[in-house]
Design brief:
Number of helices: 12
Strand content: under 5%
Radius of gyration: 55 Å
Strand order of the largest sheet: 1-2-3-4
Helix content: 40-55%
Amino acid sequence: MRIFFVLICSLALACVALGAQEEQGKKKEQKKGAQAGQVSQPGGKPKGAGKPTGVGKPTGVGQPGQVGKAKGAGKPTGAGKPTGVSQPAEVGKAKGAGKPTRVGKPTGVGKSAEVTQQTEVGKPAGKGKGKVPETGKPTGAGKATEAATATTAAKLTATGKGTGAGKPFKAQHFNLATKTTPTKFAAVNFQQGRHIEGSQNWQGSNYTVFRNYSSQWHDQDWWRGHYNNRVVFVYGGWYAWNAGYWIPAWGYAPNAYYAYDGPIYGYNNLPPDQVIANVQTALQQQGYYQGEVDGLLGPQTRSAVADYQRANGLAETAAIDQPTLESLGMT
């Protein structure tokens, strides 16, 4: 009887111990299942993450194999891809393409591409912009180019002719006091056989008359006979027509007045005073002459002519010659 009682007590203790062990195993499974559910939430499956297989089932008590299945239920280990993992991978591709590291298209991505293209063409890129400053056009470049073009256009050809850079100038008629003797400046003095200083350096057929000119003193008959009576009176002096130029007819009349001793180009078959007045007007329009339009080739007019010739690449004759008038548009 005592032995039977001991066996029953031992069996009861064994059952109690087995039940305690079984409950302890269930608690461990619940803790592991909860941990598996927490890990799986970043994977986008929060509902199934906390429900490991076999947690609520008493079958197979203490079987740790089911706990391993609970880990696989939420798939925290195998997934290895928390939220946003795939997007940074695309960011890596964007870096390889030369784009910023943001997933979306950042502002200015297209402009950066334009800057790259312009740099490849060889044009400098602006600071922070895709626009490139135009090359060869600094401030005032256009005006400088026009001036250079005008200067080049007005340069002499091999024959000494100007290229006519000026706009066409229409001849005008001026009412001048040509019947009087000027008193603004003194007349030049006669010197027999005098040549124009520096004319030997003026190259071209248009300057032949200047290179060959020398002051000559003759009476009226000589001048009329040699120049077919084409002699005009202007400002106290007489001028003879010589192959397209007016020259002073020294000796034609006593006490004659000449402001300039040299040839004057016969523009448009006008008398010398009208030619000079038209030249003065053309120089005024271009800002070279500031004096009065009086038809006199005095020091101020000759200085303005020389300034224009120098600025336009012409021979500095300071005289009314064909290349200068052609450059002024007077043809």
